[in-house]
Amino acid sequence: MKITIFGASGRTGILTVYQALDKGYQVTAFARNPTTVTIQHKNLIVIQGDILDYAKVKQAIEGQEVVISALGVESKKFTTVLSEGTRNILRAMEECQVNRFICMSSAGILGNDAGFLFGKIIIPLFLKQVFLDKVRQMKIIQETNLDWVIVRPTGLTDAPKTGKYKVTLTPPVSRRIPRADVSDFMLKLILDKQYDRQMPAIAS
Fold first, then answer.
1. Tens-level pLDDT at each residue, the chain (204 residues)
2. Half-sphere exposure of 200 (CA within 13 A, CB side)
3. Is the dihedral of CA 169, 6, 117, 204 positive or negative?
4. Strand 176-178 relative to strand 155-157: parallel, antiparallel, unpaired?
5. DSSP, res 198
6. How far apart are CA 66 and CA 27, in angstroms?
7. Which of 66, 99, 101, 97 is nearest to 85 (CA)?
8. 20 to 30 Å CA-CA from 163: which of 22, 67, 152, 191?
9. Nearest Cα to 23, choosing from 41, 35, 38?
10. Apex CA 42: angle with CA 85 and CA 14, to 5°?
11. Is 112 strand, coil or helix?
12. Which domains are present in the chain?
């Protein structure tokens, strides 16, 4: 299986790369700064690029079977990096005839699925612009004819992978989940089609 992982140098993205290689997949890791992807493996190709550079995005997707996005930004300022970057990914997938897209987003994008503290205080005060762009990203994905899944994790931690988590189509059942478990779930979605064109929440 050949997969491309965008956001590969991020804290969730790099774990997804590790786990994908451990499963025997051939991985193309897309990163703005490739020196942060310190893994060396015979099945790993690292492509340096900006997610807003369509030519580079397409280069990373050509010949692949599945695309995973672990893109993330943290900014109080207006941003379109997630939405426009995802638009580039989907356009390239359509042109390269790659049909399966798994995207990590966040609890909170539905407006009522993040709990009181995160949804009513943290997002409005600190992450408003990021979440507005996550909503734009969600709508762009929903408009495509590709097979997609948008994953809505709760608060991400750096705890070890447990392999035990709860997946729901309603608000998440708890406030935390290890990044490694989110990676595990996204990789399971490569073959598991039960959540196609849906937005499952995942929590410990």
1. 999 999 999 999 999 999 999 999 999 999 988 888 888 899 999 999 999 999 999 999 999 999 999 998 877 788 899 999 999 999 999 999 999 999 999 988 877 665 544 545 455 445 667 888 999 999 999 999 999 999 999 889 999 999 999 999 988 888 899 999 999 999 999 999 999 999 999 999
2. 20
3. positive
4. parallel
5. B
6. 10
7. 101
8. 67
9. 41
10. 40
11. coil
12. 2-203 (3.40.50.720)
Interatomic CA distance for residues 90 and 111, integer angstroms: 24
Beta carbons of 93 and 68 less than 8 angstroms apart: no
Residue burial 129-141, b: 16+ Cβ < 10 Å; e: rest = ebbbbbbbbbebb
Beta strands in the chain (DSSP E): 2-6, 26-31, 44-48, 66-69, 100-104, 147-153, 155-157, 166-168, 176-178, 201-203
